[in-house]
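ingest -> validate -> predict -> emit
validate: passed (alphabet ok, no gaps, 294 aa)
predict: started
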Amino acid sequence: MASTSSLLLRIWETHYPILETTISFRLWLKPLSTPMALIFHGGPTGSWNSPETGKLLGDEVLCLDTQLLIHQIIVKQIVSLMGNHELLAAEYLGKCLYTVAMGTNDYVINYFLSQPTSFQYTPQQYAEALILKYSQQLKTLYNSGARKIALFGLGKLGSIPFERTRCGIKGSLCMDQINSAVQLFNARLKSLAQELNLILPNATFTFIDYYGIEDSYIASFNGSLVTDVGCCKFGSLTVNCIPFEIPCKDRIQHVFWDGIHPTEATNVAIAARAYKASLPTDAFPYDISHLTGV
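emit:
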């Protein structure tokens, strides 16, 4: 089961459905379907944070602000289920595990797709603008009772099949510019996790280095993985698979399923290291297995 790397906000489970089994959940969890997990998907293409991205994606995709409003409604229902005992509900929510990932669509669908945004902001300015908004939203999530929160950084977006195709003859120069911009965002997100831990009482934010984990995972195969094309063909105007096209036979050898989304094999590898870090750089200040025990 592949997962989008755009925003997913979940209670009692984590960014990738694969982690549901890693943490030993008895059943695969579906969006808003069980009492042990609440999952807010942004839609078929994920979610967004920048208003300009929302205009490009349309109404079918929920922005983070909307998802937070839905979460607040759910919190009220939890309080009600606990006999309007707010302190008891707060204690319960404080033990829940949240994972949040945001920014992929803001870059792929917006900033890098010849939109006015790229003329209005330098890569550094755009990263700062997204992080400023993100910080406000994470504080809203905290104020709703969340305490254990894993923040997933962005992957190596310049290397996804969609961007490889879009860059065309510009090749590695174009791809490197994208990856450099992504690293600016990731660096600020990592520092944001540290900042929030300092200023918010009992907060335990942690940063998951998706970029680094993905990069070292690919490198560990010494060039034997297919990284430049997806397992299925995708259209020139979309990152998703073309309907009814026959996918590749060996999905395990592919890093990407379509133009942007990782295959299950990739998700398994990244989820495993997000949960239990293999390198000190995989997570900061701690991996998800330690986050759940804090």
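The longest helix spans residues 171-199.
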